[in-house]
Structure formats: structure tokens, C-alpha cells
Amino acid sequence: MPRGKLYIKTFGCQMNSYDSDKMADVLARSHQLDRTHNPDEADVLLLNTCSVREKAQEKVFSELGRLRPLKDRNPGLLIGVGGCVASQEGDAIADRAPYVDLVFGPQTVHRLPEMVDQARAKRRTVVDISFPEIEKFDNLPEPRAEGPTAFVSVMEGCSKYCTFCVVPYTRGEEISRPLDDVLTEVAQLAEQGVREITFLGQNVNAYRGAMADGATADLALLIHYTAEMPGIQRIRFTTSHPAEFTDDLIAAYAEVPKLAGYLHLPVQAGSDRILAMMKRGHTAAEYLDKVRRLREARPDIALSTDIIVGFPTESDSDFAATMNVIHEAGFDHAFSFNYSPRPGTPAANLADTVPADEKSKRLQILQNRVRQQGMAYAEALVGTTQQVLVERASVKSPNQMAGRAGNNRWVNFDGDAALIGRMVDVVITEALPNSLRGRMVSHSVAA
Ligand code: SAH
Ligand code: F3S
């Protein structure tokens, strides 16, 4: 049988990118489908959706409307909707778009092969958005490395229930993979040339992995073990929750040089009143205290964050408190969003009091400030030497290589493709808004 084509469009977070790669691996094995970037030639077409922010559902339905004509041309085409919108809407997707063949949640990726067979046999929408917990990870093929960096999902879901957030409802409660499973995946990736691992979880520092001896490993321990694995040169993790950012994890920044000097630590707001309404479980001062101790452990750490502007009842002084935290924490990057009520969340019952234009005004002010801080941070890097893991040729020229420094900034420098996968020392010569330029001064021997 000739091989078919699979097209996946991914929306949203890194967990979704990870899941999309797993969908491709699973269907390559079961149905000989090769991934394509062209939806017109697909035999199976999947949307891996996100519902974390506004109008996500609507975007999915309009995308589906656009894709529908492909079915007239190719009646054998299967269309599937996965991810968080699928999880939230379930059967409602089939009601509204009956030409959708599969609806699957973030936890049922491994059941795709069966669902594809059923959809082909039945000619009606097959829906599976259950939460079979860790089963997903036990049924995935070996990871396939693409280049020197890789994601490894260590936990799924979130049990924090921040009042604005839909994730606990779409991805379920926190569930961690056993430590040995995670370490085996890391080893398999390292054997294929991966040098940098990013541990993923919606709330990754809530990781509690069962160990063979019956004890439980936390993220700090996982980092310590991973640093000892042959081939692994750098470790990252995302996304963390400040309330569970333990002393051991802070200490890891002092103790484990392979832990990258970068942390994404969402703060969401700077006003204690708003933080309490969001049910974040910490104050602004407690957040800043963790930042202070992180900087003690790793003086050159780069920090980024997530911020929501215009949460219900947010006043000018609440917003000023957010601006203060941005300054005090010294973020060099932030993902910032206007608040939008998400159906089914507690905050959706509150009146959305901040007018849209006021939200946008605040967002603009905030983004300008963060941009200035980011630029100042980048300029201060000029003249320093950064360790860069070379990932690929730069977009502009094959004689230029691109890689990320420990602080997560992209660095471009003259070099050849033989350097890909190596950790090199680069002196930073120029700071640009989204990247750095530099000159290579030395490189390690091939690992
Ligand atoms: N811990 C998660 C956070 C998921 S949501 C992670 O792994 O990324 C990502 C970000 O979207 C949140 O940190 C928050 O800043 C933003 N967000 C979530 N719900 C939102 C809402 N209702 N309105 C606006 N922004 C929201
Ligand atoms: Fe969402 Fe809060 Fe969890 S932002 S993913 S409920 S930590």
C-alpha cells in the first residue's frame, strides 16, 4: 500500500507541539502516514487546538469551514480535531461540523490509530475525549530526535485551578510520568544526538514521579539525574508555578551548571488583591523573594513571565502594581494578554469590568516597558561570552549558524554546518531586538 500523507495544524502551547509530534509518530507507525506541510495533499488532516484564550472555538470552526472543500475533492480525506477545544466541546463539534471524522482530547493521542480505522469504517464522527491518565505515555513509539534539542513531557494537566484558566478542565488534573520512563526517553534522545532537553508540563514543577523504590522524585531530583546522563549538555523546563517553586529547585540553579540560566515563571499580576482573586496562592512580595533568591543562586539568570491585563475589577493602581513587579523582577521578556473570560471557569462568572480599549491601552504600556527592559538586557550582553548550542543554519545564510544561549536568546554567528549539535563559546558583538550577533571563539570536541 502506498504511503499516505498527514497534515497537522498546531495551535497554542509547547505541550501541543509535543503532542502533534507524537500524533505524527503514532500514525506513521500504524497507518504509514508521512507528514506534509501542504493540506491539499493530506489523507488525514488534524487540527491540534488551543482554548486558553479568547475566541479559540470560533477560530477552529472557521478553520474547519475553510478546510471543508478539501473533502469534496478527496472524499477519502479524514478530518480530525484534537487538543483543548476538542476536550471542551466534544460532541458539539460533530453537531456543528458533521464532516469532522475524529474528535480526540489531549490524553487520547495514542488511540488515534483505532479512531482512524473506526472513522474509515463507520462514516460518522468518532469521539474520544476521555482522560485515561498515564496510558497515553505507555503507548507511544520511541521518540524520534530532530536536531540537538528535544522536548520531553514529564507531567500532564494542572490541579491549580487559577480562576481564569481553562487548562484543568481541558487537560485534566496533574499526573506525572514515572521517573524511569522519563529518564529512558532522555537516554533514547541523547543517543540520537540530542544535547538539550526541555522538560514540559502545564505545571512542570508539580512533577512527582514514582521511583522504582517506591519513593517520589520531584523536578529538582529529575534535573540532578538528567545532568548525569551521557550526552546531555543543557536542561530547561517549562512552565512553572511560583507557589510551588521549591528551595531545592532554586538550589539546583547553584548546583547544576547544565541547568540553563533561564526561567519562565508566570506572575500574571502584581496586585495582591488581583492575585488572590486569581487564586494564584502567593503575593507579589513572595514572588519577588523567590526571584531574589534565584538571582543569588544564579546571578546571570534571565527571567520571562506571563501577565494578564484587565482581570475583572483591575484598577489603575492594581495595574501600577503589575508594572512595579515587572521592574522589580527585571523580566527581559513577557507573554502578555488581555483578559478574556473562558467558559466554565470561576472568573467567567465575574463581570468583565475593564473595557476593551482600557485593556489594550494597559497592554501597550506594559509591552513597551518589557520591550525596553529586554533591549537593555540584550545590550548588556554585548562583550560577554555565551555558550551557544548550535541548532541550525541561520535563516539568512548557510554560512551563518544559529543557536540559543543559556538565557534562551537566539545568537547568529559565522560558522559552518559541522558545528550543528555542538556547544560553542560566542562573544556577543551586537544586540538586536529579537536576536544577538556574535563571533565564535571556541568550540567543544564533538560529543
Ligand atoms: N501553566 C501553563 C499556563 C497555561 S495558560 C503553561 O504551561 O503555559 C498560558 C497563559 O495564558 C497563562 O499563563 C496566562 O497568562 C494566559 N491565560 C490563561 N487564561 C487566560 C484568560 N482567561 N485570559 C487571558 N489570558 C489567559
Ligand atoms: Fe492554568 Fe493556573 Fe494551571 S494558569 S495551567 S490553572 S497554574
Automatic annotation (TrEMBL):
Cell compartments where the protein resides: Cytoplasm
Top-level taxon of origin: Bacteria
Domain Radical SAM core: 144-376
Domain MTTase N-terminal: start-end pairs: 4-121
Single GO cellular component term: cytosol
Cofactor binding, note field: Binds 2 [4Fe-4S] clusters. One cluster is coordinated with 3 cysteines and an exchangeable S-adenosyl-L-methionine.
InterPro entries: Elp3/MiaA/NifB-like_rSAM, Methylthiotransferase, Methylthiotransferase_CS, Methylthiotransferase_N, Methylthiotransferase_N_sf, MiaB_methiolase, rSAM, rSAM_horseshoe
Chain residues that bind [4Fe-4S] cluster 1: C13, C50, C84
PROSITE patterns with a match to the protein in the record: MTTASE_N, MTTASE_RADICAL, RADICAL_SAM, TRAM
Keywords: 4Fe-4S, Cytoplasm, Iron, Iron-sulfur, Metal-binding, S-adenosyl-L-methionine, Transferase, tRNA processing
Keyword set includes Metal-binding: yes
Cofactor: [4Fe-4S] cluster
Catalytic activity: N(6)-dimethylallyladenosine(37) in tRNA + (sulfur carrier)-SH + AH2 + S-adenosyl-L-methionine = 2-thio-N(6)-dimethylallyladenosine(37) in tRNA + (sulfur carrier)-H + 5'-deoxyadenosine + L-methionine + A + H(+); 2-thio-N(6)-dimethylallyladenosine(37) in tRNA + S-adenosyl-L-methionine = 2-methylsulfanyl-N(6)-dimethylallyladenosine(37) in tRNA + S-adenosyl-L-homocysteine + H(+); N(6)-dimethylallyladenosine(37) in tRNA + (sulfur carrier)-SH + AH2 + 2 S-adenosyl-L-methionine = 2-methylsulfanyl-N(6)-dimethylallyladenosine(37) in tRNA + (sulfur carrier)-H + 5'-deoxyadenosine + L-methionine + A + S-adenosyl-L-homocysteine + 2 H(+)
Enzyme class (EC, first level): transferase
Iron found in the keyword field: yes
Domain TRAM: from-to ranges: 379-442
Family: Belongs to the methylthiotransferase family. MiaB subfamily.
Descriptive protein name: tRNA-2-methylthio-N(6)-dimethylallyladenosine synthase
Organism: Abyssibacter profundi
Organism taxonomic ancestry: Bacteria, Pseudomonadati, Pseudomonadota, Gammaproteobacteria, Chromatiales
